[in-house]
Amino acid sequence: MKQRGPGGDRPLSRRSGPGEGTGHRSGPSLAKPKIDKSNAKDQALDSIIAADKREALKLAPVSRETEERLDRYIALLREWQAKTNLVAPSTLPHLWTRHIADSLQLLDLAPDAKRWADLGSGGGFPGVVLACAMAGTPGASVHLVERIAKKAAFLREAIRVTTSPGVVHLAEIGDNVDRITGPVDCVTARALAPLHQLIGFAEPLMRQGAKALFLKGQDVEAELTEAAKYWNIQPQLHRSRTGDGWIVELTSVERRG
Fold this sequence. Notes:
Rossmann fold, 9 helices, alpha/beta
């Protein structure tokens, strides 16, 4: 791109040639300003995320202490996202509504639950979010079960930087019973597996008294129909506050046949 002078359209580095006006003096070329496009892009995303955060906290209000923990968690997630795919890149502008508020809404469905198990925690939804929200609750704990080592490492760091009551288990999801010690009040999962498989993973914990809350999408009816082929269930459905999804609540299950 040619540099232009403050009062005209002629390049500053060009000298007057024969037949051209003699009143123009040549001057030194101006240095082309450097624009950090990456930084500009990050700043734009920061602004979008800040607006999304305000909307999310209207849907799921939290204390100032919890908000600060969630801020640290989101900052860490964005840092790790550059090298480890923790969430779908398309959802980054809506981290707070799509992921944070979506996770926080579970607390209203199990207000007395202190001990949670999150199966297939991945990027920490809903497990790390629940741990952040319950950091000031005596006796609270969240077991995060994850089979991918990189994601388990992220979860451990997220629990550390947010000083939240979480325990990370690097294990296959079906091995969660052997890893989790003590009673569990509520077991949850998000974007992990079809409902009939989730019930199979959760059934040992539910047999010990845990309630299940599974975050599901628009096709929940089809998943319930399929699950009924394998399990006797009496589900209660709750519409998600943050989109078109549903939360499937189960208090007991029994395998068919």
